[in-house]
């Protein structure tokens, strides 16, 4: 068994089976393998995460169940954080489950934050989904404060480009409609 000391607050996650972690993760198999100091350690320090996210990772490895919590707004952030841990700890199925959860959590209040996170992570699929969502639900996103959440200039430029493309499409549709009306009148 091992106890993890997690994050800057050094919170404890106790009594975790090293054997089970080794079976489910190449990263842990290496960490607890021959020649590694963690093999015989009773405590292992884990940085760059918080206890809730690390607990979700370990619980997934132990139970094969994804738990992002109950708080709707917090689920998207937990999925983002857990996805990064899944990448770090080489758990590809969990990474995919988190990506799916992120795609399902695109809502007016979360769309811009997810868009910026997708841009930062280089997740083209989520980026495209968020851009389309913002374009299709612009009024709702704006009313939820999404526009004020924008921090990344590249993302803002992308959204502006999308808006200009939509304006051009609408102008083209209006021009075509006017041409059709002229034909009908003639």
Structural features:
mainly alpha; BTB/POZ_dom; SKP1/BTB/POZ_sf; BTB domain-containing protein; 10 helices; three-stranded mixed β-sheet; 186 residues; 3 strands
SSE class:
mainly alpha
Indicate the mean pLDDT: 82
Q: Span between N and C termini?
A: 85 Å
Largest sheet: 3 strands, mixed
Tell me the overall shape: elongated
Order of helices and strands: EEHHEHHHHHHHH
The count of helical stretches stands at 10
| Helix fraction bin | 55-70%
Describe this protein's structure.
- With 186 residues, the protein is mainly α.
- 66% of the residues lie in helices and 8% in strands.
- The protein contains ten helices and three strands, in the order E-E-H-H-E-H-H-H-H-H-H-H-H.
- The chain has a three-stranded mixed β-sheet.
- A hairpin with a 4-residue loop joins strand 1 (2-6) and strand 2.
- The chain starts with a strand and ends with a helix.
- 25% of the residues are buried.
- The mean pLDDT is 82.
- It holds the Pfam family BTB.
- Residues 1-70 form the BTB domain.
- It comes from Emiliania huxleyi (strain CCMP1516).
- InterPro entries: BTB/POZ_dom, SKP1/BTB/POZ_sf.
- This is BTB domain-containing protein.
């Amino acid at each position: 068994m091992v106890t993890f000391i997690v994050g800057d607050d050094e919170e404890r996650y106790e009594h975790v089976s090293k054997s089970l972690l080794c079976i489910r993760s190449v990263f842990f198999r290496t960490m607890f393998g021959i020649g590694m100091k963690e093999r015989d350690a009773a405590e292992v320090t884990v940085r760059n995460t918080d206890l809730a996210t690390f607990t979700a990772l370990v619980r997934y490895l132990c139970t094969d169940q994804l738990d992002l919590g109950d708080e709707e707004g917090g689920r998207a952030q937990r999925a983002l954080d857990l996805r990064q841990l899944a990448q770090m700890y080489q758990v590809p199925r969990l990474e995919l489950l988190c990506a799916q959860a992120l795609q399902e959590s695109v809502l007016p209040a979360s769309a811009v934050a997810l868009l910026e996170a997708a841009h930062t992570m280089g997740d083209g699929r989520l980026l495209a989904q968020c851009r389309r969502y913002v374009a299709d639900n612009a009024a709702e996103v704006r009313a939820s404060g999404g526009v004020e959440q924008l921090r990344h200039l590249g993302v803002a430029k992308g959204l502006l480009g999308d808006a200009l493309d939509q304006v051009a499409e609408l102008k083209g549709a209006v021009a075509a409609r006017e041409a059709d009306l002229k034909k009908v009148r003639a």
